[in-house]
Automatic annotation (TrEMBL):
Keywords: Cell membrane, Electron transport, Heme, Iron, Membrane, Metal-binding, Transmembrane, Transmembrane helix, Transport. It is found in: Cell membrane. The lineage of its organism: Bacteria, Bacillati, Actinomycetota, Actinomycetes, Micrococcales. One of its GO terms (molecular function) is metal ion binding. It comes from Cryobacterium tepidiphilum. The gene is cydB. This is Cytochrome d ubiquinol oxidase subunit II. The keyword Cytoplasm does not apply.
């Protein structure tokens, strides 16, 4: 395997990590109106991701930086052509992060409701638009001979991309509900488990249609195998949730999300940005990659840095592994280490 191909799959793995980890963050944010009956419930929900949400988002930073360094042509075309969509994602992520930090700064209920609404919006918008963006990358977009995007923002909102956005939205919502069931106790846990069933059923239908469309229109034998595995694991997660096996349900849901993203990258390979108007204008792994020297330096850096990142993140999850409930919030007082209020 040459270095450009290696880095294509490394970047794919980084985006897999981001969507798996920040995916359930988005799901928790989207669950606030459904599971949070009062402020204490909402504080419990926010505290399930309080110590880890910003750590999960670092995967996006690493993935974006790696994309910029390893495939500058791909980065330039994607971030210029999808500028408005990616700007909306960035603004939504800022909105969500600010809300986590500021909702507890004042005691008024109206103050907290406004920031809770911002958390929901800041979770829904990225969950939907990431699916739209990556579906368009797989489908292909109009490019000119210089590999510049020559379409419009409206052109990105095609039926396949919208279905991709709906699929990621539903997968992340279900992922978040399963995570809440795993991390909480009492009534919130029960409500999360119950809501995960209809949400999971709708997600199964949307994901099945989207993955089938992807495989038939843009896929390869490899992507077909991965898509079938993703569908099977999604059904397995629903069954595990129904039986109250929350650890299994969460693990299978994480694997489903990982394989769904892997399906997109397997369908894309060996292109990185297909040109829908003229295949000769497509960006491929070879013509979009940096120099061998750059990729070599990146490879040695990743060899030492990635294990450290994985170990640190694993340690963080282990430290904050315990369930929380209303008693955790009610007994927290004015300050709780590692928690958001």
């Amino acid at each position: 395997m040459d270095l450009p191909t290696l880095w294509f799959w490394i970047i794919g793995a980084l985006f897999v990590g981001y969507f798996v980890l920040d995916g359930f963050d988005f799901g928790v944010g989207m669950s606030l109106p459904f599971l949070g009956r009062d402020d204490t419930d909402r504080r419990v929900l926010i505290n399930t991701i309080g110590p880890i949400w910003d750590l999960n988002e670092t995967w996006l930073i690493v993935a974006g930086a790696s994309l910029f360094a390893a495939f500058p042509e791909w980065y330039a075309t994607m971030f210029s052509g999808f500028y408005l969509a990616l700007l909306l994602i960035l603004l939504a992520l800022i909105l969500r992060g600010v809300s986590f930090e500021y909702r507890h700064q004042r005691p008024e209920a109206s103050w907290k409701r406004r920031f809770d609404t911002m958390i929901v919006i800041g979770s829904v918008v990225p969950a939907f638009l990431w699916g739209v963006a990556f579906a368009n990358v797989v489908r292909g977009v109009p490019l000119d001979a210089d590999h510049d995007y020559i379409g419009t923002f409206v052109g990105l909102l095609n039926p396949y991309a919208l279905l991709g956005g709906l699929t990621t939205l539903l997968l992340f919502f279900t992922h978040g509900l399963v995570f809440v069931a795993l991390k909480t106790e009492g009534g919130i846990r029960d409500r999360a488990r119950r809501l995960a069933m209809p949400a999971g059923l709708v997600a199964i239908i949307a994901a099945a249609v989207f993955l089938a469309w992807t495989t038939l229109a843009y896929g390869s034998p490899l992507s077909a195998v991965i898509a079938v595995a993703a569908a099977a694991l999604l059904i397995g997660s629903a069954v595990a949730n129904l039986r109250g096996k929350e650890g299994w349900a969460f693990g299978l849901m994480a694997a489903t999300t990982a394989l769904a993203v892997a399906t997109l990258f397997a369908s894309l390979f060996p292109d990185v940005m297909p040109a829908s108007n003229n295949a000769a204008y497509s960006l491929t792994i070879e013509n979009a990659a940096s120099t061998p020297y750059t990729l070599g330096v990146m490879s040695w850096t990743a060899l030492f840095a990635l294990p450290v990142i994985l170990l640190y993140q694993g340690w963080s999850y282990w430290v904050f592994r315990k369930r929380i409930g209303r008693s955790f919030i009610e007994g927290a007082g004015a300050s709780t280490a590692g928690a958001l209020h």
